[in-house]
Amino acid sequence: MDLECCWNRDVITQxxxxxxxxxxxxxxxxxxxxxxxxxCECPTFLNDLKQLRDDGNPLAPVxxxxxxxxxxxxxxxxxxxxxxxxxTLEIRFLHELGSVLQSSVDLDEVLSVALTAITAGKGFGxxxxxxxxxxxxxxxxxxxxxxxxxxFEEASQVWEEIAQNDMDLQTLAQNFRLNKLSSEREKxxxxxxxxxxxxxxxxxxxxxALDGKRPLLVEGAFQHPDVPPELANLLxxxxxxxxxxxxxxxxxxxxxxxxxxTQRAITEEDMHSMExxxxxxxxxIERASLYDKLQVELERVTEAGKKLKEQQELIVxxxxxxxxxxxxxxxxxxxxxxxxxxxxxxxxxxxxxPASDSKRTFIESIVAxxxxxxxxxxxxxxxxxxLYPTRDFWDVNQLIETALHDTADVxxxxxxxxxxxxxxxxxxxxxxFKLLSNCLKTVLxxxxxxxGTDLSISISSRRADDGVILNIEDRSRHLSQAELxxxxxxxxxxRELGAGLGLALCKTMMERQGIPFVAQADLQDGIRYTITLxxxxxxxx
Length: 541
Known about the structure:
The protein is an alpha+beta fold. The chain folds into four domains: 14-87, no CATH class; 104-266, 2-Layer Sandwich (Beta-Lactamase), CATH 3.30.450.40; 291-388, Helix Hairpins, CATH 1.10.287; 390-539, Heat Shock Protein 90. It has helices at 31-37, 43-54, 59-103, 107-119, 152-165, 169-179, 181-187, 189-194, 205-212, 229-235, 268-352, 360-385, 396-413, 433-448, 481-487, 501-512; strands at 128-135, 140-147, 196-198, 216-219, 239-247, 250-258, 392-394, 417-421, 429-431, 456-464, 467-474, 517-522, 526-533. Mean pLDDT is 78; it is low at 493-500.
């Protein structure tokens, strides 16, 4: 019998077998290997087998049976290889996913990785996914984030972009977090708002699936008795998967996934893979959420510690100032009585002393120095009183006019001209009237000791966003900023007793009330004082 196939030859040439292609030359000298890989599917071999059956060869049925069994086992082996390959890819994917999730404590990063893994072709390949998180304070399951296309055109664009960039899962997740997280959240804003279910609603399918702690495949959603019509219409698909996120028996949230574009059926294999994945995601989300809460608590405790430290420092300063106040008040009262007696006698002697008396000059000097010391004592006593100011709402224009009226005689007698430009429609300011009035008088009196030809003081008030601003410009004093800063230090050494003390005490008293007191000096233009008065109690510190 003439056989057409080369299956029974030990050695063949390239022309003898069309099944042997370039790169498979070893099959030309290996009969057994060639029979296994090529002959079983070769049409010429099948014709030879048919001829054997037609000729009644007893080996024909045996060979036919062997061939059928070989094909069956080969198909099974190929299926097992394909299954092992898919499982190997899945294990590698889950390992990569687990590594990313276990190393991250940022909630947005965890969610980005999780949803990207569900929807990416290199992951589970679902078209769309929604994440719902449990809000234990409100007792609700709330929509938090969505990912996926809303129509076929958008899906084609996304798939084309992924194919062109060929990014791995971690890169895809990072790209989503940096470039698309906000836009995806906004895109599904309407859906996420409606994916809110009270956890107490035990009959709702989402809560049922969450309490069941097992994945649930919903098919025929529009006619399903357990699926509310509003949920089916909201998702717009007839089949979707519910994947509860459970960490240590704690309900973390829920993932809803579907194939709204491709309409590919969700298989049991998809369910098992997603269930394995959900444990890692639930743990990562819970850990990231706890980390966020810990950070918030840490910031709150840090801020509380900072405020406590500031309060402790303030208490120490207040105690120190109170001690200084008691000492200065005691000294002032001890000195004041003999000083009043000396001043009284000196003024009486001056009044009764004729102009020709040679001692009159000495008496006048005693009276002048006594008056200066009395002024210093008044400032010291005012400083003591300022330690416990009493504040209320006052008209700032009225306050300024009162201070100008009280100092008018002294200002005029020393050749000073004052100009006041009151602001209109000013709100009332929250201040200690007596304290601020004393400060204004001190500023005006202190300026009198300056030198220069332009003896003028201009005062103005105006409204600002943060309160009422009071400006005082004195063109008679010509100091450098360094000299002025030195004068603003309480009890700093100066050439003349009391010079600068009033300004320093004013600054201290204002700042004790949380009122900024800024003094700027210019050798040409003089000194400009800026006081910002609060209009609300909250502005006080």
